[in-house]
Hints:
By secondary structure, the protein is of the alpha+beta class. 38% of the residues lie in helices and 25% in strands. It contains 8 helices and 10 strands.
Amino acid sequence: MPFKRNWDASCPITWSQWEEDGVSWLIQDLPPQHDALVVDMLVEQFLPDEVMCNTTGVHKEPAGVADARLYWNGALGKRTSLACYRVIDGVKELVAANVCPVKCLDDDDSGGIEQYKSTSFLEVVKGLDYIEEKAQALQVLGVEKYLGGAGLVVRRDARGARLGGRLLQAREPLCRHLGIDATVTTFTVPPSQKLATKVGFKLLTEVSFSELAEAGLNFPKDSDVVMKVMAKMYK
Length: 235
């Protein structure tokens, strides 16, 4: 059964907070009223920047953008995603977020791909499915569920504050609260792979664009792009 968190009076919970150079920051559960802001940020910044989406042209195809919005809205609706806020003079502003759906051993994913209509986004989904199948993270880690990663975005005017690493680290208290023993993410570019390594993620497997092409997917055969499935245990 798909995992969905019970959003009750205790939510949102703050998982991390700090001050730096006169600015206060906090990372908490993403509240429902800010879902649309996060999806807009992902469409504007993540789609053109992320290597798989950029290669298939999701951001250039209206149907692809619509599919991405559908996917992210579904993931955010599980209420396990993280938001980072900047607070200046009492004004609290959403500046970064990490979409974090939970993957369970007994999930039934059959038919899920049929909801997407665009060639561009479908190719990304098929690529991620191939990578996930190769990684076999649940079996390798010996867990029944894990917190995943389906998009991390930092608003351009907040970059340089090391918010990406803070968001990855904030997965730990969230997971411990939910009784989840691991987090797993496919990091698709070297900077995010290095960041994940820095905060304690370990490599499970890697897949190149060339391997995806050999599997019949529409990615460049001669590309040196390598995606890495990385995990961190909390037990």
